[in-house]
Amino acid sequence: MSMVRYIGKPVVNSVREMGRMLMFLLSSFGWLSRPPLRVMQYIKQLHFIGYKSTFVVVLTAGFTGMVLALQGYYTLRKFGSEGLLGSAVALSMIRELGPVLAALMVTARAGSAMTAEIGIMRITEQIDALDTMAINPLQYLIAPKLLAGLIGVPLLVAIFDVVGIYGGYVVGVDLLGVNAGSYWNSIESAVEWKDVYGGILKSISFGLIVSWVCCYKGFYTRMSAEGLGTATTEAVVLSSVLILVWDYFLTSVLL
Amino acid sequence: MLKLVGVKKRLGGQPVLQGVDLTIPPGKLTTIIGPSGEGKSVLLKHMIGLLQPDEGQVWVGEVDISRLHGQPLNEVRKRFAMLFQGAALFDSMTVFDNVAFPLREKLRMKVAEVAERVNGMLEQVGLAGMGHKFPAELSGGMRKRAGLARALVMRPEIVLFDEPTTGLDPLMAKSIHDLITSTQRTFGFTAVMVSHEIPEIFGISDYVAMLKRGRIVAMLPAAEFQRTTDPEIKEFISVGEPAAVSGVPANS
């Protein structure tokens, strides 16, 4: 009996937690469409998640594209296929690295900050204060962040892809001497609409995962400084793991 | 106006409220006292629907809010305001924006009207000219004043105060108490306050209730409460009173 309890308790707790997370997401989306529409809140969150993450995304994208070109060049040269470097960089960026790395960067920069901000509001009773003023915290605080994640991450992924491909160009063409025409031409012939579509789908779902998990963890922070630290760590770790796991499943469906 | 009937609540598996029956007289200041950890703040949160009882009812006028959610609960909450222990000001907003927040969210007032009402309120709580400051730039007492201004700006019928003087020096605590009583008399709202400030609360409250072992063990007019012969209550309230020997603090 104790064995059943030993195994059953964490299972029941996990299922309950998942149910609570799902209800949190559905309720927040439910509040998206209800008045009043706080446009400034949405713009503010989009600015925070999107615009303020641009620098770190550009930096990561540039070096990712550069290292990809470097590795790709020496691998392709063994087969005399340096001309395919552009397509190798572009396909890796658009299909995988762009959505995954951009989402991980947003998790690290904006996701952790979202959890900390909401968590502090919980601990200092600012969320309770919203409730007492008859203002739904899901509508005022969470819904704008969810929408900003859904819109902001795909835009950042687009920037990541472009900068990454250009980073690959700088290393491949300017440094290693690959022909510029064949670099761009191989991209044009290899990249199909379904690659772009897959990348967009991934980036939207990753944007949802980041904002959902990070907002949830902040909203249900335990009422202590230690609880806030734990919530922030859990938010970053869970978001990152979910991004990678979901990436695998989505890739296996899209391919 | 505000009535709790047989309210029971367990938190983390532990019983906190074990059958609270309490009627708050309208237009008066009622203070709830009791040992720490007895659930006074929990009780206050039940009154505004931030927590819901496991059993029992919470009546606000003719509405039982113990099972209300969403919009119907929000409708009832429009009658309330609450001053939290730490004031719960939004730290990303200035004092002015904090006080203006409920007006902008709930009433369609013109910018000039909002400014006039907020500045008037800030003046009333002694924060005239402080509107541009952020909460982090204010002292504890000033934060409580700003919190009070935000609580009162919507002219609520019922105001809940959760230990409004915690962490303040005696002089600042007195000024907050004075502010609460003066605003309560000016606006005539029903006030419920949780406090540990004994004996000061007897001077400002109309009624005093004591929460112990999860129940209200006494609810009397303040003057009567002080004269009670109940040994348990006497022991609790005598700790905070000045000692009989002149010059020696009671709790030294």
Tell me what you see in this structure.
The complex is a heterodimer of chains A (255) and B (252). With 255 residues, chain A is mainly α. Chain A has one domain (2-254). Chain A is built from nine helices and no strands. The mean pLDDT of chain A is 94. In chain B, 36% of the residues lie in helices and 24% in strands. Chain B contains nine helices and ten strands. Chain B has helices at 40-47, 70-77, 95-106, 111-124, 140-152, 170-187, 200-204, 222-226, 231-238, and strands at 2-11, 14-24, 29-33, 55-60, 63-64, 80-83, 158-162, 190-194, 207-212, 215-221. In chain B, strands 6-7-8-3-9-10 form a six-stranded mixed sheet, with helices on both faces. Chain B has a four-stranded antiparallel sheet with strand order 2-1-4-5, with helices on one face. In chain B, β1 (2-11) and β2 form a beta hairpin. The longest helix of chain B has 18 residues, at 170-187. Chain B is globular, with a radius of gyration of 19 Å. The termini of chain B are far apart. Chains A and B meet through α5 of A and α2, β6 and α3 of B.
In short:
Chain A is mainly α. Chain A has helices at about 1-30, 40-50, 55-80, 85-125, 125-130, 135-175, 180-190, 195-220, 225-255.
Order of helices and strands of chain B: EEEHEEHEHHHEHEHEEHH
- Provide a count of the helices of chain B: 9
CATH superfamily of the largest domain in chain B: P-loop containing nucleotide triphosphate hydrolases
Which chain pair has the greatest contact?
Answer: A-B, 14 and 23 residues
Question: In sequence order, what are the helices and strands of chain A, one letter per element?
Answer: HHHHHHHHH
Number of domains of chain B: 2
Could you tell me the radius of gyration of chain A in angstroms? 21 Å
Number of discrete helical segments of chain A: 9
How many E-type strands of chain A? 0
